[in-house]
Amino acid sequence: MNDDEDDSSREEHHTSWWRRVTQRLAGGPRTREDLLELLRDAREAELIDNDAMSMFEGIVQTTEMHVRDVMVPRAQMVIIEAEWTLDKIFEVVIESGHSRFPVIGDSKDEVIGILLAKDLLKFSSNLPAPGTFDLARLLRPATFVPESKRLNVLLKEFRRSRNHMALVVDEYGGIAGLITIEDVLEQIVGEIDDEYDEAEGARILKQDERRYLVSALATIAEFNAYFGTALPTDEFDTIGGYVLQQFGHMPKRGESVRIDRYSFNVQRADTRRVHQFLVTVSA
Q1: Less Cβ around it within 10 Å: N or C end of the chain?
Q2: Main-chain phi, psi angles of 166, to 5 degrees
């Protein structure tokens, strides 16, 4: 087929797609599924690529998802306590690699503000005299949102207020977790890695004697070699694929499944894939 025939075939394909679109839009798409079906037709017509289609699907899903679906649970929050020394704060900030930290007061349920890591830079080479460091002067106001807030609404609020983090409260007013603008955007564009995310080669990170952070991209061979297990390698290459089969569905953050002596708890996930597990080894 020559170039003219290719162009003619492509034009006929697009014309046919456009005819279907105009027919469907005569009364307007009535449901989200109608809209997604139109977008799938556009992908088949090569008017949009797979990445664009995935983002469109993510945008639609954010209108149906709530903060509770993607928040970092309270037990996994990295926090700073108001009475900590500057050395202790530096230790936690450096180890975690985060840029924002909830600061709690005397009551463990009371978040008194947000500390930005960049606000500590001035102390890195000019330490204050002992007993003179005043953490309260560095704190920014904390933003609180309910678990039930929809993600698309929260994203608008983040953009309008220029906040990047919010504390999530449950129906009783207690802290249930936290959510960042990155958590919301990842539902649309997929996982966003930065310079503080684990290195490509560091797919299994020991937390203590029984707990390990394991990337879903770690190969089953790597997992077997590290833990001395004998998980099968004939059907799946990665530990993520193998564990998802055990779940039998796409799990949400916080869900767990047990395989022999190992409990796999989903630590990081979006609507399309799991990124990281917390593996706990039973005695």
Answers
A1: C
A2: -140, 145
Rounded CA separation 267/214 (Å): 9
Strands of 165-169's sheet in order across: 72-73, 175-180, 165-169, 144-146
Enter the pTM of the model. 0.59
Backbone angles phi, psi at 135, to 5 degrees: -60, -35
Contact 85, 133 (CB under 8 A): yes
In eight-state DSSP terms, residue 272 is: S
How far apart CA 112 and CA 115 sit, in angstroms, is 10
110 close to 104: Cβ distance less than 8 angstroms: yes
Residue matched to tokens 């469907």: 24
In a structure prediction context, what are the per-residue pLDDT tens digits for the chain, which is 283 residues long? 555 555 555 555 555 555 555 555 455 556 767 777 777 777 777 777 777 777 777 777 777 788 988 888 887 788 999 989 888 898 888 777 788 999 998 777 789 999 999 999 888 777 776 667 889 999 999 999 999 999 989 999 999 988 889 999 988 888 999 999 988 888 777 666 554 454 444 688 888 888 898 989 899 999 999 999 999 988 888 999 999 999 988 888 788 999 999 999 988 776 667 888 999 998 7
Contact 253, 269 (CB under 8 A): yes
Question: Which DSSP letter does residue 137 get?
Answer: G
Strand partners, 100: 116
